[in-house]
């Protein structure tokens, strides 16, 4: 008769692990050992994460009120970090993660789409943040950029847990941190190649900023203003010369 251990330690050893690998390793080991130990020893992990699957994890994500890594003197892991660790353990299909990113409540009046990015109800913004964090940890470099860059248009407010307090941030700022930093939410991330490098290798198309049209319009307005100002100065100079000749 085969028995299964209830704690997470049995998942933390590559020996005997037969599931899918991420960059050649057991995905759950992508977190540093010290972080893993804090998570598996935490009350939230033992009480709230036991028995979760890809579907029921959404319920826990909806209950989140902040992002973050560890907090307090004892560096307790946040529920956000515990759920990210659970995602690594579950290692769900790619389509499930993409569904997390764009999950919306069919009954929400705030539901909409802006430049291809689904604007879901606020209850699910932390589910999106959780999925974005998972994408950064597990997806290939080119897919990280392709998947996360559209979320830079999401300007909703979110809270970040830091030490013994909270700080206000925004979804686009969090995503930008994922794309530009090597440590986010108290977790070391694998080194993401610069976007330009991937463009040079034809792995990514050149990114066109959604603000480019507005910037071009501002440039045109600025040039028109300078041109009008030049004409006014020229007219004043001509008028001044005419007055001198009359004198």
Automatic annotation (TrEMBL):
<comment type="similarity">
    <text>Belongs to the PRP38 family.</text>
</comment>
<dbReference type="Pfam" id="PF03371">
    <property type="entry name" value="PRP38"/>
</dbReference>
<feature type="compositionally biased region" description="Basic and acidic residues">
    <location>
        <begin position="223"/>
        <end position="247"/>
    </location>
</feature>
<protein>
    <recommendedName>
        <fullName>Pre-mRNA-splicing factor 38</fullName>
    </recommendedName>
</protein>
<dbReference type="InterPro" id="IPR005037">
    <property type="entry name" value="PRP38"/>
</dbReference>
<feature type="region of interest" description="Disordered">
    <location>
        <begin position="201"/>
        <end position="247"/>
    </location>
</feature>
<dbReference type="GO" id="GO:0005681">
    <property type="term" value="C:spliceosomal complex"/>
</dbReference>
<keyword id="KW-0747">Spliceosome</keyword>
<dbReference type="GO" id="GO:0000398">
    <property type="term" value="P:mRNA splicing, via spliceosome"/>
</dbReference>
<comment type="function">
    <text>Required for pre-mRNA splicing.</text>
</comment>
<keyword id="KW-0507">mRNA processing</keyword>
<keyword id="KW-0539">Nucleus</keyword>
<feature type="compositionally biased region" description="Acidic residues">
    <location>
        <begin position="213"/>
        <end position="222"/>
    </location>
</feature>
<keyword id="KW-0508">mRNA splicing</keyword>
